[in-house]
Design a protein that fits this description.
Blueprint: H1 36-53, H2 58-64, H3 97-102, H4 106-119, H5 122-136, H6 139-143, H7 160-174, H8 194-201, H9 218-221, H10 227-233, H11 252-255, H12 261-267, H13 291-295, H14 300-306, H15 325-329, H16 334-340
Helix pairs in contact: 4-5
């Protein structure tokens, strides 16, 4: 693919800036120099035609010149392909997950290979064989435990005896099953068997568990207990904390202690104490008034509360013998008339 050395900016690409896709071609060999004259003539014709197509004006030519002679950025190649084409050999191993997933499935490849073999496509068969090899060795095929195909084992033809035996077996299995009839009962319907009744009438047998008498065996005689068992077998001896070994001994702090007046008062016996002679509920002067109560001045609220309340008796009427007009207008029911009659009349 030939690429133009001139870009829209009108600058030439240097050799160190030129990308890989636009490589500089080698010069023409000597054998092809005879075609150079014809090519140059055609190029001149093209240039002349190009000049005739455009109207040359000074203003247009001035505007066509770039402002900056040097490119600010690296010029891009004007090739047909935007990216370079990478050629990967077929024998290169694939390790990435995307490459592993991109491989076609084994079953699909097998069906395509069968179709290629039927059509007689040798090139397609070789390509599919290569893909099958890589698909079998991929990680996902290993996880699925995909096994390579094996040639099917050809079954041997059956002999006449084997065929006859098979037909006999098929005829036997094709016959319907005969349902067996239930056996006849020994007794009639509703009749009890004597053997069963005798068995049920027998009392249940209980085996008494007799415990053997305790005997000192030889193993028990020769037994030697361990240190731990002997230690656990001893009874626990606890010290009695409540018993004082020297009851007559007095602490030195108690000897130097000075009791207070209250303790001395409480230490006296109850018969001597004056407060215990008189009951606590009875005072010396029960009708005496305290001096604070005599000096107290009662408030208006306390005086109001101290006055006795007058309650009106609502049950006593002013004219007890007066009859209400509603009672005069009322008509007595037969039940009231019956109840109004004196008893025994």
């Amino acid at each position: 693919m030939m690429a133009s050395k001139m870009l829209t900016t009108g600058l030439k690409l240097a050799d160190f800036v030129r990308p890989d896709c636009c490589k500089i071609r080698d010069p023409l060999p000597k054998d092809a120099e005879c075609f150079a004259k014809d090519i140059s003539k055609e190029l001149e014709k093209l240039y002349q035609r190009h000049e005739r197509m455009f109207v040359k004006r000074k203003r247009l030519m001035e505007m066509a010149l770039p402002v900056r002679r040097r490119c600010r950025f690296v010029p891009k190649c004007a090739c047909q392909f935007s990216k370079t084409i990478e050629i990967i050999p077929a024998y290169q191993a694939s390790y990435t997950r995307t490459e592993q997933l991109a491989l076609p499935t084994v079953r699909r490849l097998l069906s395509r290979r069968e179709y290629a073999m039927a059509q007689g496509d040798g090139i397609g068969e070789s390509i599919l064989n290569r893909l099958l090899r890589s698909s079998y060795l991929s990680m996902y095929s290993r996880l699925a435990n995909m096994q390579p195909l094996k040639m099917p084992i050809k079954k041997k033809k059956k002999t006449k005896k084997q065929k006859a035996r098979q037909m006999k077996y098929l005829e036997k299995m094709a016959q319907p099953k005969v349902i067996p009839k239930p056996p006849k009962r020994e007794r009639k319907v509703g009749q009890m068997s004597e053997r069963r009744l005798k068995k049920l009438s027998r009392p249940k047998k209980y085996v008494e568990e007799v415990q053997p008498k305790w005997e000192l065996t030889e193993t028990m005689r020769d037994y030697k207990p361990t240190k731990r068992i002997t230690e656990l077998a001893k009874h626990v001896i606890r010290e009695n904390v409540h018993i004082n070994e020297e009851p007559q001994k007095i602490a030195p702090n108690a000897l130097h202690y000075k009791p207070s007046a209250r303790i001395k008062e409480m230490a006296q016996p109850a018969s001597v104490h004056e407060a215990n002679m008189v009951p606590a509920d009875i005072k010396e002067e029960p009708f005496a008034i305290s001096p604070n109560a005599l000096k107290y001045k009662a408030t208006a609220r306390i005086k109001e509360l101290a006055e006795p309340k007058e309650f009106e008796n609502a049950h006593i009427r002013e004219n007890p013998f007066a009859i209400s007009p509603a009672a005069l207008k009322a008509t007595a029911s037969p039940r009231l008339i019956e109840l109004a009659k004196p008893k025994g009349g």
